[in-house]
Amino acid sequence: MPPKKKLTKEEITDCAFGLLRAGGMAALNARALADRLGCSTMPIFREFSTMEELRRAAVGRALECYHAYVRQGLEEPLPFKGLGMAYIRFAREEPQLFQLFYMTPAGTYVEVPRADPNQSSIDSVASSVMGGSDEEGQRVLREMWIFVHGIATMIVLGTMDFNEEEISEMLTDVFSGLRENRKEKKNG
User: Fold this and answer.
1) Where in the sequence is the domain holding 175, given as residue range(s)?
2) Domain tally for the chain?
3) pTM of the predicted model as reported, rounded to 2 decimal places
């Protein structure tokens, strides 16, 4: 009889993340994971006491993936626009993860933490595009996020598909309009 395969928590988490990424939370179950790992479910439950614990580990890996997109966006020459472009790129390239985070009622599978380790950078960028005003920056950030989220959702659902150039132009137009509107109200 061949020796039993010893799997690490890291290997199991990587595989669980792969299932989550490919098929969403519905694809992540003990049997599918064991099949993909080429083992029984026993090695999985030696490392994880429950499926909930395993799901949390896979979601943690998914959040790391999302945060990498955010960091990349913040490194663009126009970081505010880069942030929106990165969010849409995440939706296009990782539709299952996008749906899990932004199109599933909170608490359905795993309570997804909404705190972003990039938040202070995001807040700083939002403030700077509005001339250093934190309040105005947050307002424009919220309004832009609604627009960006709409584009990302349409792409994930397949109702619309825009290329990078179209998205870039739309983000510029909407941002310019929002910024001018805020200036007019302030000077008004």
Assistant:
1) 9-187
2) 1
3) 0.90
What is the CATH classification number for the domain harbouring 57? Answer: 1.10.357.10
Closest CA to 80 of 162, 156, 163, 147: 147
Cβ pair 40, 135 in contact under 8 A: no
Residue ranges, the chain, pLDDT below 50: 1
Instruction: Provide the token pair at 172.
Output: 């510029």
Instruction: Specify the pLDDT at position 1.
Output: 45
Residues 6+ apart with CB under 8 A from 116: 67, 70, 122
> Is the residue at 2 inside a domain?
no
User: What does the DSSP 8-state code read for residue 110?
Assistant: S
Q: What is the phi/psi pair of residue 185, to 5°?
A: -65, -40
Q: Quick check: is 26 in a domain?
A: yes
Q: Is residue 95 part of a domain?
A: yes
Domain annotation covers residue 1 = no
Q: What pLDDT score was predicted for residue 53? A: 95
Name residue 132's amino acid.
Answer: G
